[in-house]
Automatic annotation (TrEMBL):
GO terms for molecular function: molybdate ion binding. This is Substrate-binding domain-containing protein. Keywords: Signal. SUPFAM superfamilies: Periplasmic binding protein-like II. The lineage of its organism: Bacteria, Pseudomonadati, Pseudomonadota, Alphaproteobacteria, Acetobacterales. Residues 1-28 form the signal peptide. InterPro entries: ModA/WtpA. One of its GO terms (biological process) is molybdate ion transport. It holds the Pfam family SBP_bac_11.
Amino acid sequence: MKTRMKLRLAAVVSAACLAVAGLAIAHAADTGWNGKVEAPKYKGDMFPPWQGGANNDTVNKGFLFTVPEVDDMADFHGDIDHPKLILYIGGNYYFAVAPLVKTFEAEHPQYKGGVFVVTIPPGLEIKAMKAGGIFTVGNMSFTAKPDAFLAGLKKVKSLISDGMLVGPPVAYATNNLTIMIPKGNPGHITGLKDFGKPGVKLVMPNPAFEGIARQIEASLVKAGGKALEQKVYETGVKDGSTILTHIHHRQTPLFLMQGLADAGVTWKSEAIFQEQIGHPISNIDLPAKYNTTAIYGGAMVKDAAHPAAAKAWLSFVQTPAALKIFEHYGFKPYKK
């Protein structure tokens, strides 16, 4: 009798454990979390911000408090208390902010220490503009209404048509796509066609708010037809072989360096910057027939609080001094 009771009790306990495990698995599936917490094994300097605070032109920085991956606002640059110019710049050249602002302030000393720059993807910046320039990051909320908006020229023109920006638009630089890979190319990627091979893990810009994704989709179609584009952006997203980013300009190299992906498409300038700062990142050029050229433009925001400063910046980005900075990262001057 005791033996039967023990067996029944064991069966009940076992069933309960399986039920709990099932709930845990279901919860993991619901939340998307299937990992485990463990101490980080990376060097702190592998995480943003990567430029040692150089993008912040604040004169008095006070108490320095940055903890990589924990307390880190890498895409907001400058002093928000008394800005003299607020810029929303497409995140694909956050790394050029420091030298650009430094050169601009040397030519326009009245703005020294007062340039505040936001470098998240343009699609998200537009959402912020529609929200009155109010941001909430973690436990902090602040307001930064832009004076000028700089992104892809096509998007700038559409925002002028919508009445959010004031024309005429200013075009100043161009950029091309590349395949970003970890140094050593462990995935043995040779070109876009390899994105269709079984087992290849990709990290790709999110079409929901990153304009580059539309141009990447066009390049995938050129290289391997609609089937390749669907393999990357539909099938791959569903089966987990394609990771979609939220701030791809920083997440792509991070995911590659952490071994989470074999490759990802970015702008050429981003790969050049990663190599310049010594990260284990490389890139594979795309043939011209598969590539896409982006044209960068900007315009003043309607009802800008600092219109003179906005106009000064829009004139500045077309100057030889600014274009020389862009060329350092692989951009080319825009030519009509």
